[in-house]
User: Fold this.
Amino acid sequence: MSEIRNFTMNFGPQHPAAHGVLRLILEMDGEVVERADPHIGLLHRATEKLAESKPYNHSIGYMDRLDYVSMMCNEHAYVRAIEQLLGIEPPERAQYIRTMFDEVTRILNHLMWIGSNALDLGAMAVFLYAFRERENLMDAYEAVSGTRMHATYYRPGGVYRDLPDEMPKVAESPWRKGKDLDRMNQWREGSLLDFLEAFADDFFNRVDDYETLLTDNRIWKQRTVGIGAVSPDRAVQLGFTGPMLRGSGVEWDLRKKQPYARYREMDFDIPVGSNGDCYDRYLVRIEEMRQSASMIKQCIAWLRDNPGPVMIRNFKVAPPTREEMKDDMEALIHHFKLFTEGYCVPEGETYAAVEAPKGEFGCYLVSDGANKPFRVHLRAPGYAHLSAMQEMAKGHMLADIPALIATQDIVFGEIDR
Amino acid sequence: MSTYSQRNQPLVQALNHALGGRIVSMTEYRGQLTVEIGHEHWLDSAWLLRDEPDLAFEQLIDLCGVDYLGFGDDEWETAEATSQGFSRAADALGPGRFSWAERPEAADIPNRFAVVVHLLSLGHNRRLRLRCFLPDNELPVIHSLIEVWNSVNWYEREAFDLFGIVFEGHPDLRRILTDYGFIGHPFRKDFPLIGNVTVRYDEDKGRVVYEPVEIEPRVTVARVVRRDSRYIDQKLEGGEQ
Assistant:
């Protein structure tokens, strides 16, 4: 009788379902995964070390490039860590703007997740719908920061600038004209807040659409129910956070338990799963999108009624306005020092965490009193999730591996850093 | 002896009660509690922190290494600026400012390497930071926490990869983030930011070759330390736990 041996195979780093550059070494017993060993680091850019060689503000843009589908949430953790060390607090309006854009970002992330997850498991249409909505939110990013993805919008002491009064419109072109153009521009007549409100109102129906396509879909349920089940105890032990933890039935959300920005004023629920499988995590994220849309509307209501500054008036940290620089020597000097040297952060250390769409995104910052951080460590939620791949995958079929990667919502920008 | 805020009092008492002499020091900064644990008590403190009901830190959120070489040094100790601008005049001490040949000597500072852990208690809704300095700078060794918190697996591999900290008892201490066959521990402060080797495809040899770096390290903004009294003793309001 011939000897039967386990078969070792490479999944990725070029596999379309690997969500980037994951190289997964699978030891297979027939179709069943015996061992899954993720090899990561193919996207390692030493962000933490780069940040040590630059003034504090220069690294905000790097944070966008960590988890590149939830950009502003990463910025939020980093900026909050600096603010804690400096002992400053942004104005209330800036905090509401941050809260709103954190939720916009959460929807952006979850749309990316639902689209790619469905695509990985064979449902093509959801991907197209999800990207249609993402496009609108990208436009909101662009309106407020000038770029569609890597916003660098949050700054220590507030946000870069106030929300624009006018939402840019789509220009006419040979491909976009007539009724098509009118439809695209119908939300864009007013301000950014009008646009986001129109989006949020409409978005509940869009989430219902996704649910129509997936929730009771027989194939979808066959691919997700009972796959990758994690018990609550194991989820905590494995360092799960965010929807991965909530899917296992642990009610834990930093926005509720350790509120930051203006989450204390927000009215929202934490959805939790019960079985801890891919399907429950899907349901959790779907509900989170609805909650996010509702929070965006709450923020819009406040922001409409309460104009005010969006950046602290402290020229050590935030630049003075152009007009002030023309009049005031002090302001000019501050501007020069701020942009040539930055600001010195008092010696100390802090850890600031935010509830990013994927889980707890934290920034551990050590300062020795210089204008550059001494040590930055970024705690990426996906890192802990992916390290549990072995435990989640063992005993599942090869075809379940894409489902597991997708349910962990893996993005390599944050895992490899 | 530092003082503790009202919110941290119960935690401080519970820690003192449970850990006792294992605590080297305990400090609070910006409302966050940091406990320094003696190197030899690292593992048993971890068990206590997880299992004592008053502490109950069920979740290890994060572990990372820190290299304290050059802590508090600045690069602004220059007498004159050269015609090439201050960037050539500034002492190049910080990460990436030197080529490998002229890297600063890892001066024999005590407590160069530390391991920092962030714990979270879901039940008590509390956070705690642990720090442990490693006695040996040449071969920093510490006990692995993988039995206590399974989530530490990759974090310890990362600290090993980037700082060369060895975790005793870790079942699978391989490099994780750097390239296969990488030499050195890149997040150490005496490792240049630009690295040591570049990679390119050699047409003649028909394969990828490694070569020494050619680019010059450059200082764009010098590292300066300014003690500014305005930042001291400002209390941060807000919901930080």
Q: What stands out?
A: The helical segments of chain B are 9-19, 42-51, 86-89, 152-163.
